[in-house]
Amino acid sequence: MPPLETREVWLRGPLPDIPPLLQPVAHALLQAREELNVLTHDFPDELLWERPTDRNGKSVASVGFHLQHLTGVLDRTFTYARGESLSSDQLTALASEENPTQPTPSMKELIQHFSEQVDQALDQLRHTDEGTLTEPRGVGRAQFPSTVIGLLVHAAEHTMRHIGQLSVTARLITL
């Protein structure tokens, strides 16, 4: 049997203080953080905002975009899960995700921001009452209908989707 620390996070067992129904969300976020650290090891800062093109000549999102977006999505979806509206700072961050902020953050700084956001998300999960998971929540200015559990699960799956996209982009531009 492989050592516990080499298994995917969900195969390591329950996480302390995380409600049972929210374990998969927490596992996915921790897995994303681990994979991001592996994917970005030795990735050069000068390639953060490079946008490779696909075979049709269309550019794809940069590694820097994915890193900013990962952090922002967690922040926004967990805000909605709390039943809150986005702040002006969150809206500004959303509008600037495709472009580096000034001064341009390093890979290390972007990864640190994401890691801190994962920690905040895990703290929120620890304090989420499972009895509230089916409560309705509105998303965005249009208040599209969702639930607490819908937002939390979406945050986890969206995070993993962007980890996959970041992985492909990083490989393309470092070939």
Characterise this structure.
Pfam families: DinB_2. Residues 29-166 form the DinB-like domain. The protein has helices at residues 23-39, 63-81, 88-95, 107-126, 148-173; strands at 136-139, 144-147. The protein has 5 helices and 2 strands, in the order ααααββα. It has a domain at 62-175: dinb family like domain (Four Helix Bundle (Hemerythrin (Met), subunit A), Up-down Bundle). The model has no long low-confidence stretch (mean pLDDT 92). Helix 1 packs antiparallel against helix 4 (107-126) and helix 2 runs antiparallel to helix 5 (148-173). It has a two-stranded antiparallel sheet with strand order 1-2. The protein is mainly α and 175 residues long.
Which keywords apply here?
about 180 residues; two-stranded antiparallel sheet; globular; DinB/YfiT-like; DinB family protein; DinB-like
Q: Topology, pairings included?
A:
Blueprint: H1 23-39, H2 63-81, H3 88-95, H4 107-126, E1 136-139, E2 144-147, H5 148-173
Antiparallel strand pairs: 1-2
Helix pairs in contact: 1-4, 1-5, 2-4, 2-5
